[in-house]
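Hi W., the NDP complex you wanted:
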Amino acid sequence: MKKALITGVTGQDGSYLAEFLLEKGYEVHGIKRRASLFNTERIDHIYEDPHNENPKFFLHYGDLTDSSNLTRIISEVQPDEVYNLGAQSHVAVSFEAPEYTADVDAMGTLRMLEAIRFLGLEKKTRFYQASTSELYGLVQETPQKETTPFYPRSPYAVAKMYAYWITINYRESYGMYACNGILFNHESPRRGETFVTRKITRAIANIAQGLESCLFLGNLDVLRDWGHAKDYVRMQWMMLQQENPEDFVIATSKQISVREFVTMSAKEAGITLEFIGEGVKEQARVTAIEGNDASGVQVGDVIVKVDPRYFRPAEVETLLGDPTKAKEKLGWVPEITVEEMCTEMVASDLDKAKRHALLKHHGYSVAVAKE
Ligand code: NDP
Ligand code: GDR
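Structure:
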């Protein structure tokens, strides 16, 4: 039985990857951070009580800033495959906490690689690094592929650029099976609530149910190549099953704007929107309502506004990936479209909003967390 170790197992990708590997028959180990509240919501459904007989899923307390802890866990687990998904993954937050972001995202990757080498596992343990389309930043070529030059535009992207190169360096220096997946944005109902797609689907659902009145966003013109996390974790595993380690771009090769994603999400909740005004004055108002999900809004309501506090000091305006290499060498193609993903995300957030609305209707106080 193969053993896999996942950093970032409590995150969006970590949770889907853990499910995927358990289904493939792996023994799966995950590193979770200590938090003052439970932070395992995304993996609670696959949690196994360590008192059970023959558990297949194990959690270890740890942190990418702590080398001795990482070395001990890797030594205990002796993994065949390591998936380094742990990161301070929010681009906007990386401008607020650049040093911490570098410590976790850049140095954390080095700590993992060095622990594998130090323990003499460099010929046994295969290593996957969660690289990112943010490396392309100010794009030098469209669409972006494996050979496109990088131009990172945030402390997050610069830290991930170090991680990208140190992974290649360990591959070339020590013959490690180590590779980078250069993944474009991927989302799901499990996406963190402060990334733009989930912020939109969650707010639209809450507004439709009368729990919120307005969604404030930053740059609506930005274009992204959005795929589904389930498709992308499958590719993370495929990359570690080849004869030789290589780096791959993973994307859908279709891009839409933030504004289009708002319109699409609202439509899913039965709300037709019209955008009016320009720049920081741009807003969206309701022009029609269909079905029963949007009882909390009326025609004419303004439910989306621009707030400059969500602008970034340096923006990545457009990203569009070319996954030809992944298709030709690994036979990988994304199966879920952005439209299907949006339908799933809005349905999931509407379900939660309806439960909250019901509680509110029965007199319970319901607080909606926001950033
Ligand atoms: P999430 O933000 O959902 O998950 C990040 C995970 O990293 C969480 O489990 C988090 O723990 C953990 N983590 C954060 N800081 C530390 C630390 N100091 N030590 C150990 N673990 C830590 O990200 P995603 O699942 O979306 O992304 C997975 C990886 O892929 C990340 O590295 C991200 O940068 C990268 N990536 C993501 C893309 C995307 O579109 N989703 C695209 C390209 C790359 P906790 O739950 O406690 O916060
Ligand atoms: P990104 O994702 O920065 O691409 O990084 P995010 O969803 O945060 O932003 C996408 C684009 O939307 C614009 N935007 C807003 N973003 C947020 N979060 N909140 C807003 O209110 C808002 N309004 C407009 C942003 O400016 C940006 O251009 C994600 C992360 O998962 C990274 O870890 C990963 O490496 C990349 O995707 C690929």
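The first strand starts at residue 3 and ends at 7.

W.
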